[in-house]
């Protein structure tokens, strides 16, 4: 049966006390995006499959460096009785205002997700609302393999400069701090976590996959925000061995 696609857009408001730049830093670390998923038990850096990245217009010149992971899930076959361990690759690319993630799950299910921290009125510098889930590759964009570990790849980041994987350019950092200052000085603009998700799989599987998409991603986004709020209140940062309740 032919492969089909399903898309989903979600917006979760940030609570008043959650700093947009703190949430952005959290998203840029990638760990919360995996840890918040119910079935994920582990994720480790992995070697990038460069050809699959270069052939996917989801990863563009407007992003920062790319990082690959191997994700481990325990998927319930018979709920409460029998679960099966599966492993699959996931590729992350940071943006100035968020991150992109592509996961190649079992049974030929491929999921593209984008998480962006934006002003609710779409007025933030460098973070207008929008999605790149259906765009074509940037014309003339160069592609280079840069130094770092096997999972760290650069994609010809024109205009960005030398940006470390876990770091951000001075422009990105300054913008985040400036927006936090504006939030204080101007009485506070509202911010959202915007999520754009597209899944592609065999048409026979799509009813089962799409049925759980919205609930799973809404829960993921809310858990990431909740963790930032907890950290800002002085809570302990969770690791993979200390899952959400």
UniProtKB/TrEMBL annotation:
Spell out the Pfam families in the cross-references. DUF7053 (PF23155)
Stretches for region Disordered: 122-152
Boundaries of every DUF7053 domain copy: 4-123, 175-229
| Entry superkingdom | Eukaryota
Q: Give the protein's recorded name.
A: DUF7053 domain-containing protein
């Amino acid at each position: 049966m032919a492969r089909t696609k399903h898309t989903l857009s979600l917006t979760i408001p940030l609570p008043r006390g959650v700093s947009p730049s703190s949430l952005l830093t959290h998203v840029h670390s990638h760990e919360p995006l995996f840890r918040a998923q119910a079935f994920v038990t582990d994720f480790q850096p992995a070697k990038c499959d460069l050809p699959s990245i270069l052939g996917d217009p989801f990863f563009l010149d407007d992003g920062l460096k790319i990082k690959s992971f191997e994700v481990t899930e325990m998927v319930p076959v018979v709920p409460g009785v029998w679960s099966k361990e599966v492993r699959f690759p996931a590729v992350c690319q940071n943006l100035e205002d968020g991150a992109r993630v592509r996961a190649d799950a079992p049974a030929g299910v491929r999921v593209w997700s984008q998480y962006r921290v934006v002003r609710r009125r779409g007025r933030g510098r460098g973070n207008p609302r929008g999605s790149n889930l259906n765009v074509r590759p940037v014309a003339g964009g160069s592609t280079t393999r840069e130094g770092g570990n096997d999972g760290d790849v650069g994609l010809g980041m024109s205009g960005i400069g030398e940006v470390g994987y876990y770091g951000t350019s001075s422009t990105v950092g300054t913008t985040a701090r400036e927006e936090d200052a504006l939030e204080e000085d101007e009485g506070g603009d509202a911010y959202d976590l915007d999520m754009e998700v597209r899944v592609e799989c065999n048409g026979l599987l799509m009813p089962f996959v799409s049925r759980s998409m919205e609930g799973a991603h809404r829960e993921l986004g809310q858990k990431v925000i909740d963790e930032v709020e907890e950290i800002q209140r002085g809570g302990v940062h969770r690791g993979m061995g200390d899952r959400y309740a």
